[in-house]
Design a protein that fits this description.
Helices cover 40% and strands 17% of the residues. It is an alpha/beta fold and 340 residues long. Strands 3-2-1-4-5-6-11 form a 7-stranded parallel sheet, sandwiched between helices. Helix 3 runs parallel beside helix 5, helix 5 runs parallel beside helix 6 and helix 9 crosses helix 11. The longest helix is centred in the first third of the chain and has 21 residues. Bound molecules: uridine-5'-diphosphate-4-deoxy-4-fluoro-alpha-D-galactose. The site of uridine-5'-diphosphate-4-deoxy-4-fluoro-alpha-D-galactose has 21 residues, from helix 7 and strand 8.
């Protein structure tokens, strides 16, 4: 049985990945500082899987504490999710973002070196493709023209990991570039429920659906897309989680860096998401058109064929499934709301 350390394992993508790992008989050690998650998620992971796992409340910036985890477990590989992830906040707090995401990762890598761990899957993002690539995005396209500090931390960490693999052939790293993860576990026990006013489309829509927010602002209706609104490649978080297990399975085959897009290969507009959500929930989502959001691109989606070819992974859930599961989760969080 392989022992997988999951940093940020209580977060949105991390928690779904832990479920998938446990259901595939991996032993899981979760490290999380709960900065953007909560201890109840751990109970939910246990309720879904009926499996035990180790947990450490630990910030990656606290290297002494982190070192304890490596001392107490024989770790075969790491899936590294932990990091700050709000694009707008990263523009306002660049030092915090660079320090947290880059230094946290460097501490983790130093501990890996010290304890002879040399396999890692990194939670990267389609944001590293920047502004200048044609769509669909392919893994061999140039990266780094990022438009905000959050995205730049992802590009920097990708670079650090590639440099490490170049200098030490014993290391094996996978960079997984996610597109737009939404949806939730079908049990409704884990999902995405950010504090405060959400930045991202689906959490915003679900808060409009529950009556917490009055209407959705659709940022831009004059893009050159099918209906003028922004187009993204939305992917069900459970498909993404399964992609991580596939990545871990082939992580031990050989060393070096491998890069995979995790997307569906299909773009959906904001209005398409709104309409599909309304159909799945039966709840109308009032919206108004607002100016374009700074830094947004009109349209992008993945070329997802490399992961299919090499990892034997393909997204299975539809946009309707994603909307249904997001709604199911949020209803379970906020009983007695519209639609109950
Ligand atoms: N949108 C709205 N109204 C909202 C929120 C979003 O119209 O209230 C629109 C955006 O303009 C965009 C689409 O919905 O067209 C998706 O926006 P999100 O904020 O949900 O997602 P982004 O594509 O902007 O960003 C996501 C992640 C980032 C990641 C990026 C790159 O949030 O972490 O994808 O793949 F870097």
């Amino acid at each position: 049985m392989k022992h997988i350390l999951v940093t940020g394992g209580a977060g949105f993508i991390g928690s779904h990945t832990c479920v998938e790992l446990l259901q595939n008989d991996y032993s899981v050690i979760i490290v999380d500082n709960f900065i953007n998650s909560s201890p109840e998620v751990l109970d939910s992971i246990h309720r879904i899987t009926k499996k035990d796992f180790a947990f450490y409340q630990c910030d990656l910036l606290d290297e002494d504490n982190l070192s304890r985890v490596f001392q107490e477990h024989s770790i075969d590989a790491i899936i590294h999710f932990a990091g700050l992830k709000a694009v707008g906040e990263s523009v306002r707090q660049p030092i915090r973002y660079y320090f947290n995401n880059v230094s946290g990762t460097l501490n983790l890598l130093r501990q890996m070196e010290q304890h002879g761990v040399n396999r890692l899957v990194f939670s990267s993002s389609a944001t590293v493709y920047g502004e200048n690539n044609p769509i669909p995005y392919r893994e061999d396209m140039p990266t780094g023209q990022t438009t905000n500090p959050y995205g730049t931390t992802k590009a920097m960490i990708e670079q650090i990991l590639q440099d490490q693999c170049k200098c030490n052939s014993q290391w094996g790293v996978m960079l997984l570039r996610y597109f737009n993860p939404i949806g939730a576990h079908p049990s409704g026990l884990i999902g995405e429920n950010p504090n405060g006013i959400p930045n991202n489309l689906m959490p915003y829509i679900t808060q409009v659906a529950t009556g917490k927010l009055p209407y959705l602002n659709v940022f831009g209706n004059d893009y050159s897309t099918s209906d003028g609104t922004g187009v993204r490649d939305y992917i069900h978080v459970c498909d993404l989680a399964r992609g991580h297990v596939k990545a871990v399975e082939s992580l031990f085959d050989e060393g070096g860096t491998k890069i995979y897009n995790l997307g569906t290969g299909r773009g959906s507009s904001v209005l398409e998401v709104v309409k599909t959500f309304e159909q799945q929930s039966g709840v109308p989502i009032p919206y108004q058109f607002a100016p374009r959001r700074a830094g947004d691109l009109a349209e992008y989606y993945a070329d997802a064929s490399k992961a299919e070819r090499e990892l034997n992974w393909q997204a299975e859930y539809s946009l309707a499934d994603m909307c249904r599961d997001s709604w199911n989760f949020i209803q379970k969080q906020t009983p007695n709301t519209t639609g109950e």
